[in-house]
Each structure stands twice: as structure tokens, then as C-alpha cells.
Amino acid sequence: MIEARELGFDWSPRMPVLDNWSAAFESGTMTALTGPSGRGKSTLLYLLGLMLRPTHGQVLIDGEPASALPDAARARIRSARFGFVFQDAALDSTRTVIDNVTEVALYRGDDRQACAHRARELLERFSVDVPPLRKPTQVSGGQAQRIALCRALLSRPLILLADEPTGNLDPATTRTVVGALAEHAHSGATVIVVTHSPAVAAACDREIPL
Ligand SMILES: Nc1ncnc2c1ncn2[C@@H]1O[C@H](COP(=O)(O)OP(=O)(O)OP(=O)(O)O)[C@@H](O)[C@H]1O
Q1: Is the CB of 40 under 6 A from ligand 1?
Q2: Is residue 163, in this structure, part of any structural domain at all?
Q3: Does residue 193 belong to any structural domain of this protein?
Q4: Does residue 186 fall inside a structural domain?
Q5: Which pTM was predicted?
Q6: Which CATH number goes with the domain that contains 200?
Q7: ABC transporter domain spans which residues (predicted)?
Q8: What is the total count of domains within the chain?
Q9: Which among 133, 132, 165 is positioned nearest to 149, based on CA atoms?
Q10: Which of 26, 30, 155, 199 fits as disulfide partner to 185, beta carbons 3.0 to 4.6 Å?
């Protein structure tokens, strides 16, 4: 469960993005955050993911205030509980595809062999048919997006935040990805998806327009 309570955020004093914004995201649900470009959806995801600090208000994780904690404590919470799919995939171009998928889970202390096995399963499920030792600079935008999704799902995070996870995908692959996100939510996680796609929003349990 993650809650935004009276959140406010300004990139600069003349550029308020969010003002007094509140919502609760229950475990076991998938929520779509929708709204026009530039409205602040990505910014909100960064705030919910404890990567930005709100100017006002707070983010609570399982009822505990988290957004005002020191950097190291927020980093620990992110590592233990969150999975992220960033809008631009944000893969490490110096590492192979398979290492990109496993790195977060290995950092968290998960078993290396089990991680590698599950990584291959996920890549296959999302039809990422590139050699696992290839570098992310040699994959397409849609493949990079699915690799980022595999990385996020690998550690079965309690909270999964995905920014336009289907932006570069065809309709069939979009359905596979949305199905996997919904399955993850319905196994007990909190999933929040930023999307411009009415079909993706309709597949979520709830839509919150910004
Ligand atoms: N790093 C930044 N520094 C300054 N301003 C920023 C920064 N990132 C975003 N903004 C501004 O904050 C506002 C909200 O941006 P954000 O990316 O959160 O919107 P969005 O709803 O996710 O947009 P889109 O749908 O186009 O991805 C925009 O006016 C944007 O220009």
C-alpha cells in the first residue's frame, strides 16, 4: 500500500507541478495514471518512488511516512520494495541484456542461478528474442522497454511503478505486457502505470486522471 498525502511539488517556484494531491494505492490493484502530456505524471511517479522529495505533503509506504527520510533510508526502501520501469528504459549500456535484467535482484541478494533462470523465462515470455549477451545499444526501443520490464518484474517487487511501459509496443505485445503487470498486481503487489493508451487504462482496476 502506498499513499500520497497532500503532495505538492515544484520544479521551480514558477513551475508548480502538483498541488495538494492525494490518493491511496492498495495492494493487489493496478492503477492507471493518465492525463495530458506535461501534466506531471512522471514527476508523480518519481515522488511515489521516493526518488524526488515533495515540496509539501508526504508519501507513506504501508502507513509509514517515507518521503522525508534521509537519502540512504529511501534508497533502502526502494531497493527492498520497488520495481521501476522508466519511460526511456534506462538500461546500463555497458552491461549485457541478461545482466541488466538480473542486476537489481542480485544487488538485493537473490540467488544468482535462480535469477538467471527467471530472467531467461521473462525474456522469453515477452518475446525479447535477442542474444542475452548483447548490449542494450544493439536492441530496438520496444525490446529495451521489455528488457526494463523483465528487470522490474524479476525481483517480484511489492510496488511496481511503470512509466509508459507499452509506449513502443505493438498491440499484441502490449496485451502480453499489460497481462503480466495485472498478474503481478493480482498476486498482491501495488502496480501503478502511467499511460496515454486508453486500452491500457481500461485494463487497469482503476484510472486516476491528472
Ligand atoms: N527535470 C526537470 N526539471 C525541470 N522541469 C521538469 C523536469 N522534468 C519535468 N519537468 C517539467 O514538469 C512538468 C511535468 O513533467 P512530467 O514529465 O512529469 O509530465 P508528464 O505528465 O509525465 O508528461 P508526458 O506525458 O509528456 O510524459 C512539465 O512542465 C515538464 O516540463
Answers
A1: yes
A2: yes
A3: yes
A4: yes
A5: 0.93
A6: 3.40.50.300
A7: 2-203
A8: 1
A9: 165
A10: 30
Interatomic CA distance for residues 73 and 67, integer angstroms: 10
Query: Is 149 exposed, middle or buried, given 0-12, 13-18 or 19+ CB atoms closer than 10 A?
Result: buried
pLDDT over 90 (residue 9): yes
- 210 contacts 41 by C-beta, under 8 angstroms: yes
- pLDDT tens digit sequence for 86-145: 888 889 999 999 999 998 888 888 888 999 999 999 999 998 988 878 999 999 988 999
Whole-number pLDDT of residue 196? 95
**Domain limits at 164?**
2-96+157-209
In the beta sheet, which residues pair with residue 56?
8
Cβ distance 41 to 194 under 8 Å? yes
Ligand 1 probe mutation, 10, 33, 42, most atoms within 8 A of CB? 42
Q: What is the pLDDT of residue 15?
A: 81
Evaluate: CB of 39 within 6 angstroms of ligand 1. yes
In angstroms, the CA 126 to CA 117 distance is 15
- In ligand 1, the atom with minimum distance to the C-alpha of 87 is 27
Residues 180/149, Cβ–Cβ less than 8 Å = yes
**CB contact set of 71 (below 8 Å; sequence gap of 6+):** none
Higher pLDDT pick, 166 / 185: 185
Residues of the chain above pLDDT 70, percent? 100
Mean pLDDT of the chain: 93
Q: Tens of pLDDT along 42-66?
A: 999 999 999 999 999 999 999 999 9
